[in-house]
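User: Here's a structure from my thesis project, written as structure tokens. My advisor, Dr. K., wants to see whether a designed sequence matches the one we expressed. Can you design one independently, without my sequence as a hint?
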């Protein structure tokens, strides 16, 4: 492993956890109006479809990661 990777791994973090904390810190340090614009860009949504017997049964909008796999 390279040296920077070692530090976040030793802290027990995943790469996504490291990136999330780093971007939150960066966004928090911005001045208005860039701060509001940056925080608005972090929201997401997508549609999940389920298939049964090769037929699409319906779409569900996912807006939170906690509900993504359910």
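Assistant: Designed independently from the structure alone:
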């Amino acid at each position: 492993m390279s040296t920077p990777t070692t530090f976040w791994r030793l802290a027990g973090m995943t790469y996504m956890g490291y990136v999330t904390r780093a971007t939150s810190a960066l966004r928090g340090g911005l001045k208005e109006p860039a701060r509001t614009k940056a925080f608005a860009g972090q929201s997401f949504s997508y549609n999940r479809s389920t298939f049964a017997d090769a037929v699409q049964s319906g779409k569900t909008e996912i807006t939170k990661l906690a509900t993504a796999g359910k």
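When you compare it with your expressed construct, this may help: The mean pLDDT is 77.
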